[in-house]
Amino acid sequence: MVQEVAIGHETVRWEPVPAEDAVVQVQNLNLFYGKHQALYNVSVNFPRNKITAIIGPSGCGKSTLLRSLNRMNDLVPGVRLEGKVIYEGVDIYDTQVDPVEVRRHIGMVFQKPNPFPKTIFENVVFGLRLQGQKTGLDEVAQRALERAALWDEVKDKLGEIALRLSGGQQQRLCIARAIATEPPLLLLDEPTSALDPIATERIESLLIELKQHYSLVIVTHNMQQAARIADRTVFMHLGVLIEEGPTNQMFTNPRDKRTEAYITGRFG
Amino acid sequence: MNTSTSTTWASKKPGRSPGERLVEAILFATSLVSVLTTAAVIVVLFSETFQFFLRVPLTEFLFAPEWTPLFAEPRYGIGALLAGTFLFTAIGLVIAIPLGLLTAAYLAEYAPHEQSIRVKGIMELLEGVPTVVFGYFALLFLTPILQNLIPGLNLFNPISAGLVLGFAILPYISNVASDAMMAVPRSLREAAYALGATKFEVVTKVVFPAAVSGIVAAIILATSRAVGETMIAAIAAGQRPILTLDPRETIATMTSYIVQAATGDQPAGSLASRALFSVGATLFLLTLGFNILAQRIVERYRERYE
Amino acid sequence: MQRGLIQDSSQNPQKQQRDRINRVFARAVVVPTVIALALIAVLLLDTLYDTVSVQVVEVTETSGKSFALGQALTADQVIRLELAAQGKSEQEIAAFMSDPDEMRIFRLRNRVELMWATQDGPLRWVVSSLDDTRIKNLSLIEGLRQWNELKQSLNENQQLRLNPWLDYSFLTRDPSRNPISAGLRVALFGTIWLLTMTLLISIPIGVGTAIYLEEYAPKNRLTRFIEVNLRNLAGVPSIVFGLLGLAVFVRGMQLGPTLMAAALTMALLIMPTISIAAREALRSVPDSMRLAAYALGATKWQMISKVVLPATIPGVATGVILAAARAIGEAAPLLMVGAAAYVAFIPRGPLSEYTVLPVQIYLWISANLSEFANTAAAGIVVLLLTLGGLYALAFWVRRKYRVEW
Asked: Where is the ABC transporter domain (chain A) (predicted)?
């Protein structure tokens, strides 16, 4: 469905993700930390088997938006939320929904690699063990590590403590840990911000690989990264979703002046 | 830039008035009091102990089944006192470890801020109760109740003394263990939540294992306190040093023996008095060892996350 | 896939199990606190309960009569009534009461007390003699339950009383081997003396150590050693300090079992606590204050004494009060340095013999006589009230003088 949006004197053609292609639909989301409002009436559809990047200056609410997709914000005391986040036809904020179950379906990778102080193997199968799975762990661990492009580096030292790995390896281990339970949707919160360029490149190509199996939403402060890997991009500013669309279009022909200013580096 | 060539503390900052240097010298002297105290403890305990071993063979000290320095045929088996100390401490830990760790989990993971202040207040209260009061409570309140429940329980026994001891050392476990748990980075908890863990699973499968060294240190510290705890043992556990592991029997801990010996009259220099100091030396070495071990462990886990 | 999101426990017993454990654990973590609170409450109530008992006393020297509160208000008035009840005439009583020697002997051998209840009724004065023999000493509940039978079975010279052990005269009586006349006076004075002397010795040393380590000490191995040593000293069992005091102060310096030996021992024991609190207070003073003082041309000691130390007073005071509270409750090391001896008089100076509250309580507990359990309980209440007062004071100082930098 093509929309035509009038901005000033210009008219821009814009195509939101149709509901049937969306893995998650955010509808009129308002979020408050106590009295402070962090998200203002955000609505956006995140497409299936694509990478969507959320960009914007720091403090714009991009991490908050990401964390409301798997109810991680529930862990912050004093958070209040209005609106809907519909995942596979169910509002995950419905009172009947168990947040623990939500997080099982929607995986997450964090800014800093955060492996548990356990062995590499135990890290990967942690989620499976939580669900009481006792057999076939070896196969699942191998598949997850292969998909995370880490298998060749660690296959001989699965029993080693994960903290000995390099930063980039640790982050790929965290990705392997997140995908071991086969979550259809994977959220990534600035996953390469703590890594060097070489490790970053490996993770980026890995994310493009992962598109085949998973839908991905990635928060990044790195414009080039969004341009390199994202199919669609969401631009946030001060808790408001300013603009959303195919990455190419947003980077070459932004509809909003603030987007243009941010992308061209005038603030942020 | 270090201009001083001398190694003494006083010449480090040249050109200061004599008054200023006198003040610094006095302050330095006060800080040496603690060092001298430690030195005096060591000299006193070990010179007396050395004298003791000139008269009593080490094998007697280690292997004799009884500790009866005042009998006509005295025996000097530290094992009897160690067994009593072990019973008393072990029963205390059986109470203090689970309660202390649950409290630590509550403080670190569950309690809202105001609530955790209140819980810490209760723990401080427990810490502030004089141990002679705990001893009174064990002997005159708990023991009569337990005697109805446990057949063959002596009036003085390590069970009720140990139970009360457990509450006396609970604050040490809960304080140190909750500090260790709070030092576990938030990111690890988030990682576990993001994998669909329940709060219980986050606490037991991520936070506990990550804080395990701090928790072990907390337990060792509490053990050290328990071994050195005197009044509860002296009042409620008894002062009869025999080698037994039956918790219904009257026993003697190292500390309760020291109290018993000191409240009697033993002339300085007598073998019985030297025996007293040899028990003190054993107690000192044991608790010092525990304390140093706990500090080492705490320092190691600090490094890990900083 | 969708179904999994909705919490439908019947479909997933394993998740149901996990949720249940989670809920149980969330409640279990509160349980120890509740138990600890309950224990403290039971301990307090039990102690208070033990400060009263029901006694049956065989009266030998006194009249065995009790006097209503309305008849007498002061001890002298009670003595007058008692002498009359013993059959003395008005002149005899007047002569007796004007003779200081007679009165002193009477007061030493007898005790005037207000009992909560007697066989004659509630709140009555009783004069008991040291030679009275106690036939029964029953707990409050037991005694009240048997009250009527006990009253029926009283002989000629027997008295039934509900005795509150903790009264004003308990605080002012000297110790005694006889529980009926045992009091806390000597122990109270001993505690005040000992605490004062201990603090006079340990505050300068503890604070001096803290100032040296925080403001002067170079970062070298000696400093590191002093710091580690201080921490280890804080973990040494208090009874070991007692052994040290016994060998060095009592025997080595030949101070004997005196206040001085005890104060030196206790000062070494609480010095690390004071020092650690003072260091924290010093550390909380921001460096900008120090720089400001230097910028005004202050020497180092002027900077410390005029700027830093005044700012640390609340913190140091709190630490000192808490250390004092610890010192007041300590019995073990003092048993080693002479507090366990029977002392009948209040201390007259640093070289006097002494006893203190917790040691007196310990001696009563180990006396193995049911009435001494009552005096021990009364002593514990006094000890706990003293400590409560000190903690309240520390709390108040901390609140009132807290500085926000």
From this structure: 24-263
Task: Indicate whether A22 belongs to any domain.
Answer: yes
Is A70 close to B194, i.e. CB distance below 8 A? yes
Q: What gap in Å lies between CA B257 and CA B261, rounded to an integer?
A: 6
Residues of A in contact with C15 (CB under 8 A): 98, 101
Phi/psi for A230 (5° steps) reads -85, 140
The full set of domain ranges for chain B reads 15-55, 78-305
CATH number, domain containing residue A105:
3.40.50.300
Long-range contacts for A200-204 (Cβ within 8 Å, ≥24 apart)?
Answer: A200/A168, A200/A225, A202/A149, A202/A168, A202/A172, A203/A168, A203/A171, A203/A172, A203/A175, A204/A228, A204/A229
Secondary structure (3-state) at B14: coil
Fold of C185-400: MetI-like fold (1.10.3720)
Torsion A200-A204-A209-A214 (CA) sign: positive
Residue A9 lies in a domain: yes
Closest by CA to B176, choosing from B210, B207, B221, B125, is B221
Domain B78-305 class in CATH = mainly alpha
**Residue A71 belongs to domain spanning:** 3-113+183-263
C5 Cβ under 8 Å from any chain A Cβ = yes
- Taking the C-alpha atoms of residue A96 and residue A118, their distance in angstroms, rounded to an integer, is 34
Q: Is C203 on the interface with B (CB under 8 A)?
A: no
The model's pLDDT over A207-248, given as tens digits with 9 standing for 90+, comes to: 999 998 899 999 998 888 999 999 999 999 889 998 898 998
Helix (H, G, I), strand (E, B) or coil at B165: helix
- For CA atoms C398, C400, C401, C405, give the dihedral sign: positive
A132 and C2 in contact by Cβ < 8 A?
no
φ, ψ (nearest 5 deg) of residue C127: -105, 120
**What digits encode the pLDDT tens for the residues A85-140?**
999 888 999 888 888 888 888 999 999 899 998 899 999 999 998 888 888 999 99
For chain C, give every domain's residue range. 2-49, 52-164, 185-400
Total domains in chain A come to 1
In order of A125, B116, B118, B173, C31, the CA distances from B113 in angstroms are 34, 5, 9, 20, 18
- Given a cut of 70, whether residue B4 has pLDDT beyond it is no
Chain B residue closest in CA terms to A125: B195
Do the interacting molecules here have an ipTM over 0.95?
no
Residue A109 counted as domain residue: yes
A205 in a structural domain: yes
